Amino acid sequence: MKGDLFSSEHMAQFATAPGMTIENSKCVKYAVNGEMLARQGAMIAFRGNLQFERKGQGVGGMLKRAVTGEGLPLMAVRGQGEAWFAQEAQNCFIVEVEAGDEFTVNGRNVLCFDATLAYRIATVKGAGITGGGLFNSVFSGQGRLGLVCEGTPLVIPVSPQYPVYVDTDAVVGWTAGLQTSLHRSQSIGSMLRGGSGEAVQLMLQGQGYVVVRPSEAKPHTPQQR
Predict the structure, then answer these.
(1) Greater model confidence, 10 or 28
(2) Comparing 124 with 16, which gets the higher pLDDT?
(3) DSSP state letter for 66
(4) Phi, psi at residue 172, to the nearest 5°?
(5) Residue 139 and residue 119 in contact, taking contact as beta carbons nearer than 8 Å
């Protein structure tokens, strides 16, 4: 078989080491040797001896509601083999979480992650006011986190001298050491007169980075399972 489709650009190769890698801009490959976690429904192909288990109640149930903002549960992938993950052809990125680090991320952007990462659900002050979600997940420990983003994300440095204001519908996540609060950029009078349509933002202060997507989140209809 010949043609551009069968060129090395599109051809999947066997992994040379276990763990997560970028297969292409829209897809993450995970060479599983034990266990990893992924967004249910995000697996598009696999080979090898792998088992997929839906995460139910308990901690998994919390992630079902809070990490995946669209109401999609997570799944555990166990065994030995390779699996590919994607979400609606969004761009894929990998975050290396090191010991002592924390990364707060909106659930809609979580694709998959190492089982060595710890996570907790955190209430984000100011989020949810305009649809950004009241709960985010905070990842810590040491491992890799696969993320998806519509378009190319923008990473903005935050410093004590220069806080950053972000639309809650556009924020993807931020690093440890940043404090969040709700900021109103319009007066009540201006809002009543129509205003700019950008009345409320999430203000981040401290030292670190905030990641935003180049568009506001679209309304999502929960999938039926």
Answers:
(1) 28
(2) 16
(3) H
(4) -100, -50
(5) yes
CA 100: distance to chain centroid?
Answer: 20
Backbone angles phi and psi of 167, in degrees to 5? -70, 130
The sheet with strand 164-166 has its strands ordered as: 164-166, 200-206, 178-184
Q: Are 102 and 140 in contact (CB under 8 A)?
A: yes
Give the whole-angstrom CA distance, residue 27 versus residue 21. 9
Question: Is 53:76 a contact under the CB 8 Å cutoff?
Answer: yes
Whole-number Å distance between alpha carbons of 89 and 106 = 18
Q: What is the pTM assigned to this prediction?
A: 0.80
Give the pair of three-digit tokens for residue 165: 């204001």
Task: Give DSSP secondary structure letters for 200-215.
Answer: EEEEEEESEEEEE-SS
Cβ within 8 Å of residue 189, ≥6 positions away: none
Residue 218 is given by DSSP the state: P
State how far the Cα of 215 lies from the Cα of 169, in Å rounded to an integer. Answer: 8
Q: Confirm if 72 and 88 have CB atoms less than 8 A apart.
A: no
Question: DSSP secondary-structure letter at 4?
Answer: G
Q: Which tens digits make up the pLDDT trace of 24-79? A: 999 999 999 999 999 989 999 999 999 999 875 455 555 555 555 544 578 999 99
